[in-house]
Amino acid sequence: MAESEKKTAGRPDSPLIKFCGMTRPEDASAAARLGAAYVGAIFATSPRQIDEATALSVFGAAGSGIASVAVFSGGAIEDIAAVATRVSADVIQLHGDVGPATIEALRARFPGRIWAVASVDPDGALANPHLDELAREADAILFDTRVSGKTGGTGVTFNWTQLAATVERIRHETSVVLAGGLDAGNVAAAIRALQPDVVDVSSGVEAAPGIKDHSRMLAFAEAARSASIDGGKTTSSSQ
């Protein structure tokens, strides 16, 4: 990981927000109004998979103030880098069998940030054997739930408490992104458990796959910001 990407001293009062699985420009515009830091478009096989033209319209609607994340699972490194470059992505999020060598090869072809996904079983058991090496290479580790072979987009939470020690171990090397079944009702508890740098939501704010419900997006943003990180402990913020 480049020195410029390493986390600086001091943590935000609440984690940044990423709305993923965007398929419509109007949903990306809503994310911008809600102060999201990231919007994600999925190029992997998924009910939310979109093509490059749609991704360009989604990222364009989000505006320059939000980082665009292109989500992939498998495929040739050259193809991933080419697609991400054509859609002007700021971040590549990579699911699947990702090791340090994959990150190195991708970084040689893509100038933006690279997030590696670490799959977690619902009971909190970590599925990726390369986590410490990945944490040194990737700009962030994104934890998502693995269910029936799927490494993301399952809408299922995992046992956050079981992963707490692992997250604490790697947070000095890289940023921590938390996904996996988050919604307005549980995101504050997830923040209290793991103190992530970014919380990532997709199905938890949807009316249907790929169709975001703007009222649910608002509720999620408010719930995430209701938790503050103070001195390494997360507590509800006072008014």
What does this structure look like?
With 239 residues, this protein is of the alpha/beta class. Helix content is 32%, strand content 23%. The chain is built from eight helices and twelve strands. The strands form three sheets. Strands 1-2-3-4-5-6-7-8 form an eight-stranded parallel beta barrel, surrounded by six helices. 46% of the residues are buried. The N terminus and C terminus are likely disordered.
Task: Write a concise keyword list for the protein shown above.
239 residues; alpha/beta; eight-stranded parallel β-barrel; two-stranded antiparallel ribbon; 8 helices; 23% strand; disordered N terminus; disordered C terminus
Please tell me what the overall shape is. globular
Strand neighbour order, sheet with most strands: 1-2-3-4-5-6-7-8
Which ranges are low-confidence, i.e. pLDDT below 50, for 5 or more consecutive residues?
A: 1-11, 230-239
Helix content: 25-40%
| Strand segment tally | 12
Rounded to an integer in angstroms, the radius of gyration calculated over CA atoms is: 16 Å
Average pLDDT: 88
Structural class by secondary-structure content? alpha/beta
Number of helices: 8
Q: Roughly how many Å apart are the termini? A: 38 Å
Portion of residues in beta strands equals 15-25%
Major sheet size, sense and barrel closure = 8 strands, parallel, barrel
Order of helices and strands: EHEHEHEHEHEHEHEEEHEE
Short synopsis of the structure:
With 239 residues, the chain is of the alpha/beta class.
